[in-house]
Amino acid sequence: METLSRIAVENKSHKEEHLEYLMLRFGKKVYQLAYYFLRDRQMAEDIYQEVFLRVYVNLDKFRQESSYYSWIYKITVNLCKDYLKSATFRRIVTVGTVKDFNESCRESNKLFEQVEGGEVFSHVMDLPEKYRVPICLYYIDDLPVSEISDILKISQNNVKIRLHRGREKLKKLLSGSTVNE
Amino acid sequence: MNEINDIKEKIKKESERFFSGFNNEKMSKSVLSKINSNYGEKRKNKPSIYKITFNSSIAARISVILACFVIIITSVFFFKGKALYEKNDMMGKPVSQQKIDLNDTSYNDKWITFFKINKPNKVLQGNLLAVLWETGINGDYQMAYSSMFENSSKPEPVRIIAFNNEQPSIIIISTKSPDKQYIHYRVVGYSGSRIVAFMEQNYVTGGEIAVIDGAIKETRLVPGIIYDKKQNNDMHEVVTYYIPYQINESGDIYTSVENLKISKGDYIAVLGNENTPVETLTPNLLVDWNPGSEFLNDNKNTKFFRTENTGQEEIYIKPLYEGGQGRKISVLIQ
How far is CA B69 from the centre of its chain? Predict the structure, then answer.
């Protein structure tokens, strides 16, 4: 019994070490990806925690059919999508609809994005979510179209279309303001 | 496209600046802290993300979808005329099966199968349906006889009573309800070319069936005995010996019993596939008896006697037609 307990503890510590390593390697990327979806730091931190808790729970079941990176990113995308669809997320809005929420959110987040990031970054974040995420993954994270397609579970053709439309919209946004160097 | 590529470096630099405030070490420590408090393994406290994701709105939608599905299925059954309560696993589910040999001239296979069955009144009773199968001309099994045994849970092995000649055997199909302490049974044999029940008995309280010297010995409990003029509420054990007989095409009588030993107080009944006169040679030992309906159970081809005294008696089953051969049964009353 004592041996079994000791083995269980040792296994647990191995698992935690493993998780620590994964968080060190992919933690920031997970946070960024969550932010691309939600444009909220607190929510992105919640997603970060939930992603790695899931990773910890399912670490033994992970059969290495894909890379850790791909697996973790997919968990992140799924959680973000669920969060966006949730009614509670919509109820955070104190004024009417999700559009209104996005409007008020944009105003406050925009300030942070402009001050802490920059004007261009802020405009990128102003894009609609379905264009914003592929644009960020492509231009900020340097991911190829094939990987973006795999993570977002959309076709490569669809990724290219969204990138193209995202670029067009970004051009309009950028042309509508003065970019400070 | 070139414009975007031109500012690509700017986008990257600004995003790095924006996300530089993220403290990965702090975040990872908070995750490990939750795991060490058994969060990751037991998931006692679901994070807010789960409360957000799995909420009453989604549950309500799922409930509506399920309700629609149930309504659709119900409608399908309604318009097809099927009762909703019918469960395929209760209709026709075999409980036991036994191969039998009736020693008849057909040389076809015969089986008795017991099925669980419910009446179409939406009440679960736990009835049993006994089916006697025989192979037909084309080799397929067909139903030769069937009978339902109400509120019975336990089929008993089929008892076979053989006749010492070319006559087919008679069988006893019975079920028992151990908790309710009664039996149902059917005495089944050939009448002409058809398989029929010579006798049906239901709800025989405290019932037991045995085959003794070719006779069917039935034991049951009855409240009081009218014969003894003891009208009381005590249950008395009554033993009845049923002597089966068959009449062939020539009018000859055949029986499975030649000699029978019984006790004073027991009853004798002569049971056949046709109604034929039955006489006794010694009037003071066995007396004609007309039992109540619970004994008769609409069995018309049965003649009852009660034992009056001890001694040796003979029962003579007379043929219906001239030229037919009768049969005598010796009965020793002890």
Answer: 34
Tokens standing for B122? 């939406």
The Cα B83–Cα B77 span in angstroms is 7
Q: How far is A115 from chain B, CA to nearest CA, in Å?
A: 8
Neighboring chain A residues of B30 at a CB cutoff of 8 Å: 49
Task: Please give the residue of chain A at the shortest CA–CA distance from B7.
Answer: A120
Q: What is the ipTM of this complex?
A: 0.81
The minimal CB distance from B11 to the residues A23, A79, A120 is found for A120
- A residues 77-136 closer than 8 Å to B (CB): 79, 82-83, 85-89, 112-113, 116-121, 124, 136
Quick one: pLDDT band at residue B295, thresholds 50, 70, 90? low
Q: What is the pLDDT of residues A57-67, one digit of tens each?
A: 888 887 766 78
Contacts of B17 in chain A (CB under 8 A): 116-118, 121
**0.90 exceeded by pTM:** no
Strand B286-289 and strand B278-280: the pairing is: unpaired
Q: How many Å lie between the alpha carbon of A122 and the closest alpha carbon of chain B?
A: 9
Residues A124, A126: Cα–Cα separation, whole Å: 5
Q: Which sign, positive or negative, has the C-alpha torsion B247, B253, B254, B260?
A: positive
CB B135 within 8 A of CB B109: yes
Annotate B86-153 with DSSP letters as a single string: --TTTSSEEEEEEEE----TT---EEEEEEEE--TTS----EEEEEEEEE-TTS-EEEEEEEEETT--
Domains in chain A (CATH in brackets) are 1-92 (1.10.1740.10), 97-181 (1.10.10.10)
Inter-chain residue contact B31 with A19, CB threshold 8 Å: yes
DSSP reduced 3-state for B172: strand
